[in-house]
Amino acid sequence: MQGISIKTDPTASNPWYWNENFELNNLWLHHMYVHDTDSEGWYIGYYTPEKSTVVYTGETVTFKNLKGEDVTYIKGYSYTKKAHYLTNFRFYRNNTEHTGYDGVQISNSVGEVYYNRLYDCAYKNESAQTSGMSIQSFSGKCYNNFLLDNYGPNLQVGPIGNIEIFNNVVQSKRGMTVQFLFSYDTPE
Fold this sequence. Notes:
Elements: E1 4-6, E2 24-25, E3 28-30, E4 33-37, E5 42-44, E6 52-55, E7 61-64, E8 70-73, E9 78-81, E10 86-92, E11 95-99, E12 104-114, E13 117-119, E14 133-143, E15 146-148, E16 155-166, E17 169-171, E18 178-180
Parallel strand pairs: 1-5, 2-10, 3-10, 4-11, 5-12, 10-12, 11-13, 12-14, 13-15, 14-16, 15-17, 16-18
Antiparallel strand pairs: 6-9, 7-8
């Protein structure tokens, strides 16, 4: 059984969804119960903020980017791509229990994560898939969450900008409580 997945992969054929061309604004996820999944409970946003060079594989296209500028992508040419952001994002008052992989993975987002409850997440205990709540490539606030007995780090944080973390309850007999991840390769 799958959880909830909300993301767009920045592939070589869809420049409309690359950073600077698109952003998902005002996504608010709240008052939901996700439980007993084989994979992530929630997979929100593309997993990495890193840039990469790709050869565009689609047909030649011209459209306006977020700044209102005309941009053209030509088949066979190389371009730098990066995942788009979720802006003014809110994730609150959700319950997540007994997930196979990360309970909640939020990436490439600017917003707030608050009043959530996570219990017994990442029970498969597989490498790179074990956290209660993972907010990587995140900027904003994380507060008033209750994280109990998840495998791996209960709260995993990788900021891309300013981040405030306060008033969270984090407890586990199965893994570490909080893990901070920092990358010097992807400055904003």
